[in-house]
Amino acid sequence: MLKALIILPTYNEIANLRPLVKEILARGPYDILVVDDNSPDGTGQLADQLAEKHKNRVFVLHRAIKEGLGRAYDAGFRWGLARGYDVLFEMDADFSHNPAHLSQFIREIERGADLVLGSRNIRGGGTRNWSLLRQVISKGGSVYAQVILISPYRDLTSGFKAFRREVLETLDLDKIGSNGYSFQIEVTHRAHQMGFKIVETPIIFHDRKVGTSKMNSKIVLEAMAIVWKIRLSKPASRKRVTRN
Fold first, then answer.
1. Which of 40, 43, 68, 107 is least surrounded, with the fewest CB atoms within 10 Å of its CB?
2. What per-residue confidence (pLDDT) applies to 174?
3. Structure pTM?
4. pLDDT of 180 strictly over 50
């Protein structure tokens, strides 16, 4: 059986964390790593309580300051790789990513995928409770990145992903320059350049019911600029590795 870790970056998610952890644990043999960026609302302390309650299933990584989504995932990936996990998930901590989809990712990994992308933009995928403006921005951003990077993937900005450990070991996390939401674009693009098998699986993305979204115009503009930097950078490559 694959040893799977779900990484949940948190900043002020105290209202969502307890029910989300409960639902994830009920979905299967998944371990959880909460990566908290010193949330002032007490999310980190709640995460410690959950780790004490669910020993050997829930873990906490405390970071001193808020450094961005990419740095949080980078820290979580390194933690999981050092502890021997076979599959490492990215997942939002605000219920916008439904734990009911987790089994889809695992099935695709078991069928041979190296990286599975949760896609809102393929048949069966979509969004709920989004304004028209937000839908335009999201889909426009994905198309923008897809065209510039000449990519076959329909939802490059998705933050619901599952990586085989070999992908993260090969990517060389020190060379990932993006930090915000453009981090999602860059890791997928690098994995594609290296020849890993990438599969999209449909997800329904629900707008958060509690708390405040971290998305803003600065993040969008940063991502648009960094896409060109990624496009013009030296192509990544790897030696083909045969997996047993």
1. 40
2. 87
3. 0.89
4. yes
Among 15, 42, 47, smallest CA distance to 32 is for 47
Which pair of tokens denotes residue 5? 């870790």
Question: Which residues contact residue 190 at a Cβ distance below 8 angstroms, ignoring those fewer than 6 apart?
Answer: 171, 176, 236
d(C-alpha 130, C-alpha 205), whole Å: 9
Rounded to whole angstroms, what are the CA distances from 229 to 49, 184, 187, 233, 234? 42, 14, 13, 6, 10
- CA pair distance 3, 1, nearest whole angstrom: 6
pLDDT of 141: 80
Of 95, 37, 77, 92, give the one whose Cα is nearest residue 169: 77
d(CA 204, CA 169): 29
**Between 215 and 89, the higher pLDDT residue:** 89
Place of tokens 């043999």: 29
